[in-house]
């Protein structure tokens, strides 16, 4: 469900060169879940993308993959990284088609270990974001030519502390991110629960008017929140902003649930204002058959 393409006009990203969107693959392979990632060695030699920190879009020299090893000094976790022109949120799913050699190699490693890798947003500027989300493979199909169809589900967020190596694929040492509780009591109506209720109400209005503009029958919008607490609901809302990956990345990087919901509320208000104006124009100037 995309809510924002009317306002934020960046197109839905096309996964060129490394992966492409695919239909849901059939689960032709059974696989087992293995233990979570272990702490691993730190890294050095990080390269910097423009305006970002430790990641660059193009891979350069480095040693090959190795087995997980503990690194007690900083508790970082070593994670294979997949730069893509999309943003993965916790609990969201994405279907991918893996065909580039280095990422086919990565998938072989991932499927033989704990089924997890990190997705980091890489835009057209050539750099990759420092904050990403772990994707866990929940279904996969290996094709005869060693390509993969897979579905991954977002898990925890992370920040890349340093790059470990870049060949045959990118690996980073990461630290996990969690939203922090508020330092002081919020103002009335600005706590996470109240903000979540506001955001859900705005989403209903946006969906209702968007359906009207698209010629769909107006009907009651169901329960969008589905019992979610404010934090997972804020990720759910961010995932609906799929037409604006840079805005999604900004939401992913926030470590404050209320701040994320406030930003989503503001964006939805802008979207609602735009759609309301568009609806008024459509009502004032209805299309008519050509008099030809």
Question: Could you characterize what this model shows?
Answer:
With 292 residues, this protein is of the alpha+beta class. 28% of the residues lie in helices and 22% in strands. The protein has five helices and seven strands, in the order E-E-E-H-E-E-E-E-H-H-H-H. It has helices at 101-112, 192-213, 230-240, 245-253, 257-284, and strands at 19-20, 77-84, 93-98, 116-122, 128-142, 148-165, 171-177. A five-stranded mixed β-barrel has the order 2-4-5-6-7. Strand 5 and strand 6 form a beta hairpin. The longest helix has 28 residues, at 257-284.
Quick overview of this protein structure:
The protein is of the alpha+beta class.
The helix-and-strand class reads alpha+beta
Helix content: 25-40%
Strand content: 15-25%
Question: How many β-strand runs?
Answer: 7
Mean of the pLDDT scores?
79
Low-confidence stretches: 5-18, 20-52, 57-70
Q: Rounded to an integer, what's the Rg over CA atoms?
A: 21 Å
